[in-house]
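Supplementary Note 3. Input sequence used for the single-chain structure prediction.
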Amino acid sequence: MARFTNSSLDKLRDAIDIVDLINGYSDLRRAGSQYTGLCPFHEERTPSFSVNPTEKVYYCFGCQEGGDAISFVQKVESLDFAGSVEWLADRYGVELEYEELDPREAERQKQRDRLYELLERAAKFYERTLEESDEAADAREYLAARGFSAEVLKKFRVGFSPKAWDKLLVPALRQGFTEQELQAAGLAQRNDRGQFYDRFRGRVMFPLADTRGRVRGFGARAMRDGDKPKYLNSADGPVYQKGRQLFGADRARSAAAKRGRVIAVEGYADVLALHDAGVEESVAVMGTAMTDDQVVELSRLASRVYLALDADRAGRQAMIRAARVAEGRDVELLVVDLPAGKDPADLIAEGGAEAFEVRVKHALTVVEFEIQQAFAGAALETARERDALISELAPIFELIPAGALKDEQLRLVADRLSVSESALTSLMRERPKSAVRGDEPFAADAARRQAQSGMSAGTEKSERLFMASCLSAGTVGREHLGLLTDELLSTPLMRELRDHLRENFEKPAAGVAALKPQLRDAVTEVAMLSERENASDKAIRLGFLQLEKAGLDRALTGSPAGEKAKIELKRQDVIRRLGELSAEFA
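The predicted structure, written as discrete structure tokens, is reproduced below.
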């Protein structure tokens, strides 16, 4: 992929008016040297979103989203870095320059650009055919019978491929494209007799675009029940890989970012029906064999993903598989419980968007879904069968942190099995440890890790606040940042944050776009917090001693017995100094 020159990125950043940019997504009001407004990334009634026009950064004190103009566009428009840069360059009239590519990579890029051009021309050809050709009359009737409006068909550039074997092939060759390019684009192929012909013939065509709107391939639906296969996709090639594609991602990305959710359905018809009904944050995985890459793409569109796949066995397995892939990502996965034999398009046809939204409102957590699926496949007539189900449920419950969710699910399971909660808990506890599966259920494993990570969240927050205080305290703050050793910071991210602030003490938000997302957000948060701080020398010293004590607490927990006495002596000395300094504040 071509890289932008540093000079052109600097030129772009200079040209951007971040207040003007963000005003299109949130009504900003001046508050001193900054601007505030309602956060565009989460629902709130009291403004907690802040924009610094000088440093050209933003930060939300509610949901902790932060960054610069490029990261803002990445978030609200669901674009990658390159797409965000090009989007901003178009808006602010900046001509981008690219670093010189390796000759082989430059040639590959040129070939990909040719394929994008060919695919775009094909999409326009299929669109015109659907709109104008007598041959497409049946396709127009079919789409109208499905209830799709002309507006949604145009929005998704739905088309029709003629039945003849060379209606796309011949014009493309005349326009200078080669047979090799047509085959690489997935538009044509060669049969056993060596004849070259159009891959798609007599089918309704759905262009498959990336989040930037570039057509990468096509999905094609047969018009007659006897035509096999019912759905035919472009073959994988240089610009199209089915396992990475989400139908409608380009049309859903803006709505998904604004609503903070994305609805994943199975097929094209479901997406068109949902968009027609106003549920525009919907995309299709094009079948239930959901891939790892598709789950990753869903998580990039929004932090909350609703899986509304068919309720058959394949659909249920796909949802469980998606849950496992989402493990460890910053995404909330929920399962929409669809009626047997119904898909989202059916619900929309019968009851409109309201009928579907009711199902979304009552979506299940992955924990609830796993428990439901365990019951769905279980026989419960005999004591042995009930014991077998309890053994299957036990590893799920073992790793769910204590709380309301666990209590509620225990109660519900006990009721369904006609046993008391105490008896159920006892039976699960007595289950042989050897029966614990090596592949823990996703939901339980994720819940366990979430509980563990929560223990360090408060510590990290204290470290960020201290570093923000240092930025506001001038020379004393700079000195204490220099005293922060690795042992005093709880995570590698906090150590990276310290290093960045040391190097950019005067302008901490410098170069945030080039940082990895987690570090970028941390830097932005601390930089914005420092604007509100005015820490005294005593406050800095007190904060440093508190971090020193926390570091010694951690060291004490993980040290061999022989070293603990030495660490405890240091810890008691810090506690003494903390007491003396705290007394000065009293």
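Residues 134 and 235 are 28 Å apart (CA to CA). The chain has 24 helices and 16 strands.
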